[in-house]
Amino acid sequence: MKLGIFASVLVLSTSANAAVVNTLNNIQYEWLELSATAGMSRLDVMGQINNTNSELYGYEYATREQVEDLLLSYSGSYAVDGITGSRSESSVVTGLSRFLDDFGSYSAPSSGRPTTTGDGDLVYFDTIHNMRGLYGFGDTCSQYGGFRTSCISNVIVYSQGDEDVAAVISQSFGWNSQTTTPYLASDDLRGNFGSHLVRVVPIPAAVWLFGSGLIGLAGFARRKKA
Predict the structure, then answer these.
(1) Predicted pLDDT of residue 53
(2) Tens of pLDDT along 133-174?
(3) How far apart are CA 32 and CA 55, in angstroms?
(4) For residues 133 and 5, which has the higher predicted lDDT (pLDDT)?
(5) Which of 134, 135, 148, 199 has CA atoms 20 to 30 A from the CA of 184?
(6) DSSP class of residue 84?
(7) Cα–Cα distance, 108 to 128 (Å, whole number)
(8) Is 126 exposed, middle or buried (0-12, 13-18, 19+ CB in 10 A)?
C-alpha cells in the first residue's frame, strides 16, 4: 500500500452536481461524483471541461496515480493494490461501500449466486452495486500513447439483503500500477461509466491576504529590531 495517504472526506453540493472533497498526500482535492457524467462520452466531457459556461469547467481527468490514492483511501487497512477478486474483510467492504455512496452506483439484482472472495470465503449475494469510471490519458495509463488509451476503474460491492458482504476493485480494468496494458477505452465509450474528474481546491483569497499580512508584519518587526 502506498504510504502518506491521508483522507478526510466531505461531500458538497456544487450547483447541480455533488462533489467529494478529500485530502490525499497533503493536497486537498475536489472530485465530481461519477454519476454526474455517467452516459456521457469522453469527447462530451472534454467539451464541457473546456467550456467556461459548463458546470464541469475547471475540472480535469484524474491521473492513474490520483485514482489509485483515492481508492486506497477508501479501502481501509488492507492493501488492495493489485488484488483481483472480492474481499469480505470488513474495512474493505465498508470503505468501498462508502465510495459508492459518495460517487454514485448502479445496482443489478442477482439470484443468490456465490462468489469466492480474496480472503478465501465463499459468500452468496443478492445484489451487486458497482460503478466504473474513466480516467487518465495516454502514457499515464499504458505503455501506449494516444488519446484513445485510458484507464477504467471498476468498484463492485456485493450485498446480502441490506448487508454488504464483499467488495472488489478489478485489476483488469487498469487502475493498478502493475498493469501495463489496461483496458483501452474509445472516445465514444458510454453506458454506466462516469469520469474521474478532479481539481485542486484553491486556497481562498482571504487566506492569501492573511498570510501576506503576517509576512509583512514579520518583515516590519525585523526592520524595527535592526
Answers:
(1) 93
(2) 999 887 777 765 566 778 888 899 999 988 999 998 887 787
(3) 10
(4) 133
(5) 199
(6) -
(7) 5
(8) middle
Structure-block grid coordinates of residue 129: 452495486
What cell does 213 get? 499580512
Helices and strands of the chain, counted as H and E runs: 4, 13
Q: Residue 98 — very low, low, confident or very high, per pLDDT cuts 50/70/90?
A: very high
Residue 101 pLDDT class (50, 70, 90 cuts):
very high
Q: What is the 3-state secondary structure (H, E, C) of 13-62?
A: EECCEEEEEEEECCEEEEEECHHHCCCCCHHHHHHHHCCCCCCCCCCEEC
Q: How confident is the model at residue 5 (pLDDT cuts 50, 70, 90)?
A: low
How many residues are recorded in the chain?
226
Angstrom distances, CA of residue 149 to CA of 2, 131, 142, 184, 198: 25, 20, 7, 5, 19
Quickly state the pLDDT bin for 103 (edges 50, 70, 90).
very high
* C-beta separation of 80 from 157 below 8 A: no
Joined together, the cell numbers standing for residue 117 give 472472495
- Sheet harboring 197-200: ordered strands across? 10-14, 17-24, 27-32, 197-200, 60-61
DSSP class of 76: T
Element (H, E) at 225: helix 205-225
Report the pLDDT value the prediction gives residue 210, as an integer from 0 to 100: 45
Whose grid coordinates read 478526510?
8
